[in-house]
Design brief:
about 190 residues, mainly alpha, Rna Polymerase Sigma Factor, Chain: A, Arc Repressor Mutant, subunit A, 2 domains, about 70% helix, about 0% strand
């Protein structure tokens, strides 16, 4: 019987290695660690819950298939690289009219958990929900290269070096795209107010 890994402090690479050696609970822990961030990023990039769910599953299938060959420095960067490549393939197969409007649906609030602090009153929660919708509408207007970096940083919680590695761009380019995205978002939100 294989030893199951239960320590919350176990590194991603150790969990992946344990999974490759037969510990299925290790993969459950990895999925649990990245479920919210990865799915929110997928939803933000596709704008459609169904497409995001399909891509989310495809990412983890790819991770499972290649678990034994993982040799990158950062599992998180490797995971987003897989997700990004699958998203590129997905977009090639579809028409280029992808919209992010689905984020405004009543049930889809990918940034709400990040923006809404626990214990806030209903009025504050409504105000933050409205701000989240305004931000996500503004994010949809960003050029894809800026939207990609912004969502990887905000929803994926990737470091700029992980973003640069994932997108295969220089670190300064990732930083510049984030700066440009933030500048445009501030301008758009100020115009809307």
């Amino acid at each position: 019987m294989k030893k199951q890994m239960t320590d919350a402090e176990t590194s991603d690479a150790e969990l992946l290695q344990a999974f490759a050696k037969g510990d299925s609970t290790a993969m459950d822990q990895l999925v649990g660690r990245y479920r919210q961030a990865l799915f929110s990023w997928m939803l933000g990039m596709t704008g459609n819950r169904s497409d995001a769910e399909d891509l989310f599953q495809d990412v983890w299938i790819r991770v499972i298939r290649h678990a034994g060959r993982f040799n990158d420095v950062s599992f998180k960067a490797w995971l987003w690289k897989i997700a990004r490549n699958l998203l590129i393939d997905f977009r090639r197969k579809r028409k280029p009219d992808i919209s992010l409007d689905a984020v405004d649906d009543e049930d889809d609030h990918p940034l709400v958990e990040q923006l809404t602090a626990k214990g806030t009153g209903p009025a504050k929660a409504v105000e933050l929900d409205d701000m989240t919708k305004r931000v996500m509408r503004a994010v949809t207007t960003l050029p894809e290269v800026q939207r990609d970096v912004f969502l990887m940083r905000v929803q994926g919680d990737l470091s700029f070096s992980e973003i640069a590695e994932t997108l295969n761009i220089p670190l300064n380019t990732a930083l510049g795209r984030m700066h440009d995205a933030m500048t445009k978002l501030k301008r758009l939100l100020a115009e809307e107010a």
